[in-house]
Specification:
Its EC number is 1.14.99.56. This protein has about 300 residues and is mostly beta strands. The chain is about 10% helix and about 30% strand.
């Protein structure tokens, strides 16, 4: 029994470290801090969504509003950071080959219905899957905010892993494509001219009949793969895509252009050499010799 328990524990641990979620966001290179359940609608685990008939295909399980919304303007660069169990660890198991995409929808839709507009897509190029490129670049994929009308939006970065996708989940629940996605809350504060065009409904567009979701990477030419969801929308800007992470800076620019540390983030302590000014209304409070935080 003890041996069986140990084997089960090791198996569950290896699964956890094979999977991923979005952990944080950078805006124009400015680190917005850990976003889990803060500005990211985070699921309770990093397990994939496999049932394509589920509402979870839109924003993962546990889709609900979270306390914070990040301000961006048209032309800003948003960088999404994936990670296994926390920031700074692995990204996703290297066997999990597939595409990386980003969609956007209005927050008021809560992600339901034909509202999702694809603004970025990378699959198999130059002999490499997008997921392999993502691992090389520490889980970072960047998009440029389109010239959207002011308002609240959900941005949805997604990894489609095809390592079990030769068989559909509804045929064999042990197999099936694995989707890793989260919805991140943003407020576009610039006065753009673009309204979101009609988009896709994941419950209708992501189906077991789609060859982008049932695809055998082991005996099919990778160059023949076409991701689901249709082409990238014309509203998309020129996106940096998967690449090296931006310069890592704690805090964010305030309205005056100075640097400031957001709520609950570190602002001081032994050996600390980062930003010490908190965002407006917050104070850098001493916790102990090694740590002070903005509260």
């Amino acid at each position: 029994m003890k041996l069986a328990a140990i084997v089960a524990l090791l198996a569950s641990t290896s699964v956890v470290y094979a999977h991923t979620t979005v952990r944080a966001v950078f805006i124009n290179g400015w680190d917005q801090g850990n976003g889990e359940n803060v500005y990211i609608r985070s699921p309770p685990s990093n397990f994939p969504v496999k049932d394509l008939t589920s509402n979870a295909v839109a924003c993962n399980v546990n889709n609900r509003a979270v306390p914070k919304t990040l301000d961006v303007a048209a032309g800003d660069i948003i960088t999404f950071e994936f990670g296994w169990t926390r920031r700074g660890d692995g990204i996703i198991e290297s066997s999990h080959k597939g595409s990386v995409m980003v969609y956007v929808a209005s927050t008021s839709s809560n992600g339901q219905g034909p509202v999702w507009v694809k603004i970025h897509q990378e699959s198999f190029t130059n002999g490499q899957w997008a997921t392999s490129k993502l691992i090389e670049n520490r889980g970072h994929v960047s998009i440029r905010v389109p010239d959207l009308k002011a308002g609240e939006y959900l941005f949805r970065p997604e990894i489609i892993s095809l390592h079990h996708a030769e068989t559909a989940y509804n045929v064999n629940p042990i197999r099936g494509v694995q989707l890793f996605m989260e919805c991140v809350q943003f407020q576009v504060v610039s006065s753009g001219s673009i309204s979101l065009p009609p988009g896709i409904d994941f419950k209708k567009a992501y189906t077991y009949a789609d060859k982008g979701l049932v695809f055998n990477i082991y005996n099919s030419a990778a160059t023949s793969y076409v991701p689901p969801g249709g082409p990238v929308s014309r509203i998309a800007s020129h996106n940096p895509g998967i690449g090296p992470p931006p310069p890592r800076k704690n805090g964010k620019r305030s309205s005056t252009g100075s640097e400031a540390v957001p709520k609950y983030e570190k602002c001081g302590g032994r050996g600390y050499s980062g930003i010490t000014q908190c965002t407006s209304g917050l104070t850098c409070k001493f916790i102990n010799e090694d740590y002070s935080q903005c509260i």
